[in-house]
C-alpha cells in the first residue's frame, strides 16, 4: 500500500474532486437530454476509486462493469475522451 504522506493525500483529494466535478457535469448534461443512452452516476463513491487506484501501478489494468467513470478518472484517464465517449463520438475511448 502507498504511504499516506501529505502529498499523496492532497493528490487523492484532487482526484476525488475531479471525479465529483466530472459527474456533476454529466448529470447536468443528462438532465438536459444531451447525452444518448443510459448513465450510472458515480456521485458518492469518489473515495472508493481513488483509494483503490492509488494502490495500482501505471501498468495495472482495471475492469469496471458498472459506474466506471470514477475508476477511469482515478486511473488517470483523459476526461476529454471520456466525455466524447458519453456523446457517442468516434474520438471516445471505445
How is this structure best summarized?
The chain is mainly alpha-helical.
Word description of this protein:
With 94 residues, the protein is mainly α. It has one domain. Helix content is 52%, strand content 0%. The chain contains four helices and no strands. The chain has helices at residues 6-31, 46-54, 69-74, 79-86. Helix 1 (6-31) crosses helix 2. The longest helix is centred in the N-terminal third of the chain and has 26 residues, at 6-31. It is globular and about 40 Å long. The mean pLDDT is 93.
- How many domains? 1
- Cα shape: globular
**Annotation, overall tally of beta strands:** 0
Largest sheet: none
Are there runs of 5+ residues with pLDDT below 50, and where? Answer: none
Number of helices: 4
Amino acid at each position: 500500500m502507498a504511504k499516506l504522506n501529505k502529498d499523496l493525500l492532497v493528490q487523492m483529494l484532487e482526484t476525488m474532486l475531479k471525479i465529483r466535478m466530472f459527474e456533476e457535469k454529466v448529470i447536468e448534461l443528462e438532465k438536459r437530454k444531451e447525452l444518448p443512452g443510459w448513465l450510472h452516476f458515480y456521485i458518492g463513491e469518489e473515495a472508493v476509486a481513488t483509494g483503490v487506484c492509488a494502490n495500482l501501478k501505471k501498468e495495472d489494468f482495471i475492469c469496471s462493469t458498472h459506474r466506471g467513470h470514477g475508476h477511469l478518472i482515478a486511473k488517470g484517464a483523459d476526461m476529454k475522451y471520456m466525455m466524447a465517449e458519453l456523446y457517442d463520438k468516434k474520438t471516445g475511448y471505445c
